[in-house]
Amino acid sequence: MRVLHDREPREQDAPSVVSVGVFDGLHRGHQRVIDHVIARARAYGALASVVTFDPHPALVLDPARAPHLIGTLSQRLEGFEALGVDQVRILDFDQAASQEHASAFIERVLVGELGAIEVVVGEDFRFGQGREGDVALLAREGERLGFQVSPSVLFGDGQRWSSSAVRLALADGDVERAGVILGRAFVLRGEVDHGDARGAELGFPTANVLVGAHQALPARGIYAGAARLPDRRWWPAAISVGTRPQFYADGALLVEVHVAGFGGDLYGEVLDVAFLQRLRDEAAFADVEGLIAQIERDVVSSVGVFATFAPEASVLLG
């Protein structure tokens, strides 16, 4: 898959069927749009192309109200490739980019750079300065510039598939519902940092996974999951998202992952952590022995849940 950046401007060298959007999380609605793009591109003998933005436009336009992100840019790109996209145009979004009129964007990027012969977008797609662009404007410009427009339905299971719906499910701790909308388990990606070794002291060493300030997380609690280590294998994992109330009255929010059966050093490595099932709320116990006994039960439960995990069933999990 070819990835095109702003710093690498180029004229289009082949016609494309194109979709445009942030595609945060690459949920089932996004997958439906991309499947449509690929099918149309193959019918034309054209390239299946996607235009996406980094950072999320809301982080530039209204940072205080910007949504937390479901996935990283690297996860998004891996997902595009796994789905069969031929090329991705990443647009650096800043204040200057936010002032570009929709028609100018169409001429510069969709037609000038990507040679769009068809544009596939969700029915509620908006773009350009002040969100002036919509499907109707795209259709008018398509008549003028020589491309078709195909709106794509984003509904399924009786409701709308959306990044917002995934975030709401995560905020409720309902990682299974989030997985239904995503079409796969929610996967957090982050680098392992040094912690205070509390887990090791208890007999359950954990990887302290760093997350970005705008990363979406499941609600505080203990989860059964899976961790993909540098060897690319998935391992059973018990995951804590919380503040460790056993030891701190007002601790920092941490994501700590105990990889069952693994005894190596993960510091500095980047982990993918899949959340499969919520086990319980975080809690303080009468004594440390009570906490240890509960962690033992959590690990046993996590290994059992992992036994049902099939990453090969989801193309986006690699």
Verbal overview:
The chain is an alpha/beta fold and 318 residues long. It folds into two domains: 2-160, Rossmann fold (3-Layer(aba) Sandwich); 180-317, Riboflavin kinase-like (Elongation Factor Tu (Ef-tu), domain 3, Beta Barrel). It has ten helices and 14 strands. Strand 11 (221-228) and strand 12 form a beta hairpin. The two termini are 16 Å apart.
Topology of this structure?
Blueprint: E1 2-4, E2 16-20, H1 28-44, E3 47-54, H2 57-61, H3 73-83, E4 87-92, H4 95-98, H5 102-113, E5 116-122, H6 135-145, E6 148-152, E7 155-156, E8 159-160, H7 163-171, H8 175-182, E9 186-193, H9 198-202, E10 207-209, E11 221-228, E12 234-242, E13 254-259, E14 270-280, H10 288-306
Parallel strand pairs: 1-4, 2-3, 2-5, 3-4, 5-6
Antiparallel strand pairs: 7-8, 9-10, 9-14, 10-13, 11-12, 11-14, 12-13
Helix pairs in contact: 5-6, 7-8
